[in-house]
Design brief:
The complex is a heterotetramer, with 1 copy of chain A (225 residues), 1 copy of chain B (743 residues) and 2 copies of chain C (85 residues). Chain A is built from 6 helices and 11 strands. With 225 residues, chain A is α/β, with parallel strands linked by helices. Chain A is globular. Chain C is of the alpha+beta class and 85 residues long. Chain C contains 2 helices and 3 strands, in the order βαβαβ. Chain C has a 3-stranded antiparallel sheet. The chains are: A alpha/beta (225), B alpha+beta (743), C alpha+beta (85). At the B-D interface, loops of B face helix 1 of D. The complex binds adenosine-5'-diphosphate and magnesium ion. Adenosine-5'-diphosphate binds next to strand 3, strand 17 and strand 18 of chain B.
Chain lengths: 225, 743, 85, 85
């Protein structure tokens, strides 16, 4: 399994994501201005502040040359993981439903969060079991997941909620405690928590590894579709 | 002096710009004529306190700066020490006090931006930031506003640029009410042989300015601001606020490191206070060359800027580098790839002249030496005040029962949990943080694995209790250094080097001069005794308003190394049944303590002299025990004394403790007395016994239950008057004061 | 031509920034203020104003969560949001 | 009464957001756009519009680095920033 991690101007967690992915496969960085995905098997849109988060989080990055290829890759069922800022980019790019709004507290929050796995059919939770508890840190100012009520109902009906904050853990006022969602096919996943920062007991927890490992299970994508 | 020559702004303008009459006369002498507008503006900045260290340089020269591990000492943008395996660690602390008092969010943000640039200016990748903050008491709206905005600003910049903020400190004391302190420290890693200096060399080489465009930001800003007391003129100074752009800096950082990686640069220098003027002059001075700069080539944000404005602009996120002609194209290409503006603005010349041109025509010419090295240095006229300068803290009715006093202390502004602050900082990015805030006494950062060491690591701590220094500038400063040593010891780290920021009032006043010289003497003595070199720092003077000077506040940042991060001890009790011991023999004193503050007691006029040798022996015992994996926890006893230290261990581990003490000097002193050099450690009984045997100290109890119980005298006696029995939950409640106040 | 784009949170979407301002005002002695909403203002110089609509749709606003309104220099504000399709 | 406050970076003060948007637009095929500035829009319901000026000074804008402009419902924008005193 070869992971490609996109580097935008202003990405911050791209190397962390690369190191984390390299624990379960190979991983390389992909430059935002280069539309060539260099034949990777999975794409990670990392956290950070692409283009400074100016104007609106993810709004400018989604137009980067590489994103067109990512959209194509995703439409063909390729596994794509958006983390934090990457989640925001995928929403802006229309690969995932909904949007992310400023935390109700209006402040940046960096803390370890307890999460519950909702679906185990997404490309990045296949190695987890439903209702399994994960401990993964969050760090963001704009992480409040929003979608119109009827869309939220559909997401739940279609089993598109990937992670929820455990009771009392919601750091941002996210709708229905949502911490991550996926597209219908389950190959495109967006998460506010940072699994790349939960892969080593020395620097925190290890729950994040499972998410990277998931995509390596079998021929990820099509199985999910 | 001769009447002002035609076209020369003259003495009066010079004085408005902060120069004294004799200084102006000296400038005229060195130029053999009166300076024109451009030259005067440049001199006024380079000869300001901020750039020239007029009142501190002589003192700073007394500090020990040598050591086997020192790679770069004071004089460069940051100091650096060898951390083995071919790696060097660069670090420095810097202040941004006055800009932050004017606009706390942008002031604090650009403060972080500035210290980051100092680190990557020498070719090191920034790996961590720490912040040291001082505000007036929490019950003041202004203090809460400044805290809220400054913390937001630091987070905004550090978080956006992908450098973790791994530690810091905040104190609330009345003397900072009108003059808050915002100090930021940055650490960076580099291959030893890749460190680059800022000396411009090679006449004919090209000077390239890259990063943000140049606007009127901070014109008459930091340098001038930082050299004059804030006062009524404040409002007038406001329009020169600089706006930080972390996105631009992120690109600048990656771009600079790539340029160095590819060996395309001869020299690199950040633009900080005094902008192009100071950077160019410093580079020329260090390389003993001259420079030609054409201001017409400088990319401007505002069309109609005067040459002097361009030369003194403090627009952020800019760097200056020297490039061999054949590499210029390559340099511009790398910058373009990072969407970073880059322009050749001049070249290195023979001789020692800094020539400012506009479209090729000279608009100013100054001898570099005069600008950089020949500003007069002043001797201080220290005078010990005959009484304590500072009024007693406006404390009041602290509970008299020990349990109540403990809860009051845990909830007091200086001791309550900093969680609402540090949760606004990304402490994780770069995947190096092995100990986060509130997990241990020092932040622990992983280094790359090396032969024979799988988890080598760095530890870093920043400390400086202004009120203690106000009690006794000499001993108080020694305490600040020892406090850092103690913090490092708790995670098993040995000190490598020290940086510092000296925040003081007006040095031209004898009592401030006395504080400053006592402080620097203490700093030097402590560092010599401990064999820890001072590799860099910063000085911020004139922190004073009509209400008087701030507490004298030396902020000490210390870095250390540990062989195995897996063994770095946390501060929290971690196992029911573990034995608890106090290592180190210090007689705790209530005078100048947090409890004394709570009770509004006057500051003493001196502090007991810490026994540096004894403290460093105790620290060594703790350090070795931690490294040997003999302990489950280690925490040093600091503000609030032993009772507070025990409470913190309970909270961090969510476990209770039963402790029995002898009441040598009275119960209160034993519980809440302060004095650096004691440690609370826990671990398996036999191991802790051994450690006590080695270290001098005493087993005082055991980790147990969900209450903190502290009793005195023989086993048989039950909890009585003057003794403590508080639930861990209750301690946690009390500790949360700050969350109520900000977040 | 000088143009302005006013972007505001869509009706019914929680606007904590607006609430924060509304909460802060009374403390400063400003009573009688309600319905505060905080959005974004984008000012620009465009050669071809006819493309503004598309710019808003694609970049300047996110129609899922935001309404926007275009003001061309001198023209009166249309008063109400042009709800996005 | 319904009012709007338009807050924008002061003349000459660095506007990173405006720069970022201006740089992004050509890539999306929007050429001929210049002088982009990004600011804040505050909409509110006030009983006493005469106090708006003071609100802007003290809370809604940061006069240090921002200009603001008040629009009362229906009225035309004044076109230019009412520079803060
Ligand atoms: N208190 C101090 N202790 C040791 N060195 C200091 C101190 N203050 C300043 N220095 C050194 O003096 C030099 C100039 O400091 P500064 O003007 O702050 O550098 P910069 O302009 O790069 O920020 C630096 O090398 C700094 O390390
Ligand atoms: Mg510097």
């Amino acid at each position: 399994m070869r992971f490609g991690v996109i580097r935008f101007p202003g990405s911050c967690d791209e190397v962390d994501a690369q190191l984390a992915a390299a624990r379960v496969g190979e991983a390389q960085l992909l430059w935002h201005a280069d539309p060539d995905l260099h034949g990777v098997d999975a794409v990670i849109v990392p956290g950070g502040f692409s283009y400074g988060d100016y104007l609106r989080v993810g709004a400018i990055a989604r137009f980067a040359a590489v994103m067109e290829s990512v959209v194509g890759f995703a439409r063909q069922g390729g596994p794509v993981l958006g983390i934090c800022n990457g989640f925001q980019v995928l929403c802006e790019a229309g690969l995932l439903p909904g949007a992310l709004l400023p935390n109700v507290g209006l402040r940046f929050v960096c803390r370890q969060a307890e999460l519950e796995v909702v679906t185990d059919r997404s490309a990045f939770t296949r190695a987890c079991s439903r209702a399994e508890r994960l401990s993964i840190p969050v760090k963001h100012t704009t992480g409040r997941y929003y979608a119109p009520e009827e869309t939220l109902d559909e997401l739940e009906a279609a089993d598109q909620i990937v992670l929820r904050y455990a009771p009392g853990q919601n750091p941002n006022g996210s709708a229905r405690e949502i911490a991550g969602v996926c597209n219908r096919e389950g190959n495109v996943v967006g998460l506010m928590p940072h699994p790349e920062h939960a892969v080593d007991p020395l620097t925190g927890s290890t729950s994040g590894l499972k998410l990277f490992a998931s995509v390596c299970e079998g021929d990820g994508v099509r199985a999910a579709a | 002096m001769a009447a002002t020559a035609p076209g020369a702004p003259g003495l009066e303008r010079a004085q408005l710009l902060g120069l004294t009459e004799p200084e102006y006369a000296l400038i005229v002498e060195k130029l053999a004529r009166e300076p024109n507008e451009v030259e005067l503006a440049m001199f006024s900045l380079m000869w300001s306190e901020h750039c020239a260290y007029k009142h501190s340089k002589k003192l700073l020269r007394t500090l020990p700066t040598e050591g086997p591990r020192v790679v770069m000492g004071p004089g460069e943008n940051a100091g650096a020490v060898d951390v083995g395996d071919g790696l060097a660690l660069a670090f420095k602390v810097e202040s941004h006090n006055h800009p932050s008092a004017v606009e706390p969010f942008q002031g604090a943000a650009t403060g972080v931006g500035g210290i980051l640039r100092d680190i990557f200016a020498i070719g090191a990748r920034p790996i961590a930031v720490l912040d040291s903050l001082r505000f007036g008491e929490l019950d003041s709206d202004r203090s809460r506003y400044l805290l809220d905005r400054a913390v937001a600003g630091i987070g905004h910049y550090g978080n956006s640029i992908g450098v973790p903020t791994v530690g810091g400190e905040v104190y609330f004391e009345a003397p900072y009410e009108q003059n808050c302190l915002i100090n930021a420290m940055c650490l960076g890693l580099a291959d030893r042989e890749r460190l680059i200096r800022s000396a411009a060399t090679g006449p004919g080489n090209v000077l390239v300015l890259f990063g943000a465009s140049t606007g009127r930001d901070g014109i008459g800003g930091a340098s001038v601001l930082a050299s004059a007391e804030l006062g009524v003129g404040d409002e007038a100074k406001r329009p020169s606020v600089q706006i930080g752009d972390p996105f631009e800096e992120k690109k600048l950082l990656e771009c600079s490191l790539e340029l160095l990686e590819r060996g395309l640069l001869v020299a690199l220098q950040d633009l900080g206070a005094a902008g192009l003027t100071s950077s160019a002059a410093e580079m020329a001075s260090k390389g003993e060359v001259g420079l030609d700069i054409d201001v017409a080539r400088v990319p401007l944000r505002e069309a109609d800027m005067e040459p002097f404005e361009i030369m003194v602009s403090e627009s952020q996120e800019r760097m200056l580098c020297v490039v061999e002609p054949e590499h210029v194209t390559a340099v511009l290409e790398v910058c373009a790839r990072w969407e970073t503006r880059a322009t050749a603005i001049g070249e290195v010349t023979e001789g020692g002249a800094l020539r400012i041109l506009r479209d090729g025509g000279p608009v100013g010419q100054l001898p570099v030496a005069a600008l950089v090295d020949e500003c007069p240095l002043y001797d201080l006229t220290p005078e010990r005040p005959d009484a304590q300068l500072y009024p007693a803290p406006s404390g009041g009715s602290a509970p008299t029962d020990a349990g109540g006093a403990l809860l009051a202390l845990m909830g007091s502004s200086n001791l309550s949990s900093r969680r609402p602050v540090f949760e606004q900082y990304d402490c994780l990015v770069q995947s190096r943080t092995a100990r986060r805030p509130e997990q241990a006494d020092a932040a622990v950062l992983l280094l790359p694995a090396r032969p024979g060491q799988e988890h080598p690591a760095l530890a870093v701590s920043i400390d400086g209790n202004g009120r203690r220094v106000a009690c006794d500038p000499y001993q108080g400063t020694i305490e600040a250094v020892l406090e850092c040593v103690a913090n490092l010891a708790c995670v098993g780290a040995e000190p490598l080097g020290l940086t510092n920021c000296l925040n003081f009032g007006n040095p031209e006043k004898p009592h401030v001069a006395w504080q400053l010289s006592q402080c620097v003497r203490g700093l030097g003595d402590a560092c010599r005794a401990l064999g820890v070199p001072v590799v860099g720092g910063n000085v911020s003077l004139y922190n004073e308003t009509a209400d008087g000077p701030i507490y004298p506040t030396p902020v000490v940042g210390m870095v250390g190394e540990l062989p195995d991060a897996l063994r770095a001890a946390g501060l929290g009790f971690s196992r029911e049944g573990d034995a608890i011991a106090v290592i180190g023999s210090v007689t705790p004193q209530l005078a100048g303590s947090e409890l004394a503050k709570l009770r509004g007691e006057a500051l003493p006029e001196q502090l007991p002299a810490p026994d540096i040798a004894a403290v460093s022996r105790a620290a060594a015992v703790v350090r070795e025990a931690v490294r040997a994996g003999e302990l489950s926890s280690a925490h040093d006893v600091a503000e609030g004394g032993l009772a507070v230290a025990l409470a913190e261990c309970c909270l961090a581990g969510q476990l209770g403790a039963r402790v029995r003490l002898e009441a040598a000097d009275g119960l209160e002193a034993a519980l809440f007395g302060e004095g650096v050099g004691r440690f609370v450690v826990s671990g398996p009984c036999d191991r802790v016994q051994e450690v006590v045997g080695r270290g001098g100290g005493k087993v005082v109890g055991r980790v147990q239950g969900d209450h903190l119980q502290i009793t005195f005298g023989p086993e048989t006696k039950a909890t009585a008057e003057g003794e403590i029995d508080v639930g861990v939950g209750e301690l946690g409640q009390a500790h949360r004061t700050l969350s109520g106040t900000i977040a | 031509m000088r143009a302005r784009v006013l972007v505001r949170p869509k009706q019914g979407i929680l606007d904590p920034q607006g609430q924060a301002v509304e909460r802060a005002l009374p403390a400063l002695g400003f009573s009688g203020v309600r319905g505060v909403h905080v959005g974004r203002l984008i000012e620009l110089e465009v050669e071809d104003p006819s493309r503004l609509e598309e710019m808003c749709q694609r970049l300047l606003a996110n129609p899922l969560i935001e309404d926007y309104e275009v003001q061309l220099d001198g023209t009166a504000p249309e008063g109400h949001a042009s709800a996005a399709p």
